Q: What sequence folds into this?
C-alpha cells in the first residue's frame, strides 16, 4: 500500500486543486477523471492497485476506498470554498450598499473616534446652521408640501 500513497497522492492533490479553482463542477469533473484512470488502470493491471500484494478481493476494496476519500474531500473542499466565495461576494455587496447609503444620505453622518477626531463625515458641515428649539423645520417648504409631509 505505500506504493499507492506515493503514486496516487500527487495526482489526487493536482485534481483537487483544480476542483477548488473551478468549484463544485470542477470537483465533479476531477472525481470523474480520477475514477476513470483508477478503474481503467486496475482493469489493465497497471498502477498502484494492481500490485501482487493485494488479493483479488482486496483490490476492488482499495480502489473504492481511494475513490471515496478522493470524492468526499474534493466535494467538501469545493463546497467550503464556494460558500466562502459567496460570503465574500455578499460582504462586498453589503459594503457597497452601506457606502452608497452613507454618501447619499440626506443628513450629515459623522463618525468620531475616542479622542474626538472626525474619522468619517459624508458631507461638509461647515456651512450649516445648528438647529435649536426655535428652528422651524418647514422653513422654505411650501404649505401644500407641508400637508403631504
A:
Amino acid at each position: 500500500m505505500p506504493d499507492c500513497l506515493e503514486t496516487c497522492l500527487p495526482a489526487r492533490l493536482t485534481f483537487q486543486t483544480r476542483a477548488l479553482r473551478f468549484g463544485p463542477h470542477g470537483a465533479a469533473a476531477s472525481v470523474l477523471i480520477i475514477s476513470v484512470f483508477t478503474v481503467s488502470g486496475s482493469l489493465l493491471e497497471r498502477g498502484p492497485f494492481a500490485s501482487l500484494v493485494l488479493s483479488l478481493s482486496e483490490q476492488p476494496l482499495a480502489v473504492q476506498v481511494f475513490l471515496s476519500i478522493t470524492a468526499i474531500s474534493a466535494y467538501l473542499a469545493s463546497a467550503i470554498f464556494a460558500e466562502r466565495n459567496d460570503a465574500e461576494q455578499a460582504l462586498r455587496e453589503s459594503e457597497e450598499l452601506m457606502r452608497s447609503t452613507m454618501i447619499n444620505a440626506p443628513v450629515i453622518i459623522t463618525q468620531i473616534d475616542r479622542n474626538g477626531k472626525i474619522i468619517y463625515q459624508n458631507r461638509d458641515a461647515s456651512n450649516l446652521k445648528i438647529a435649536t428649539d426655535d428652528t422651524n423645520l418647514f422653513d422654505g417648504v411650501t404649505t401644500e408640501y407641508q400637508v403631504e409631509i
Q: What stands out?
A: The two ends are 80 Å apart (CA to CA). Residues 115 and 121 are 16 Å apart (CA to CA).
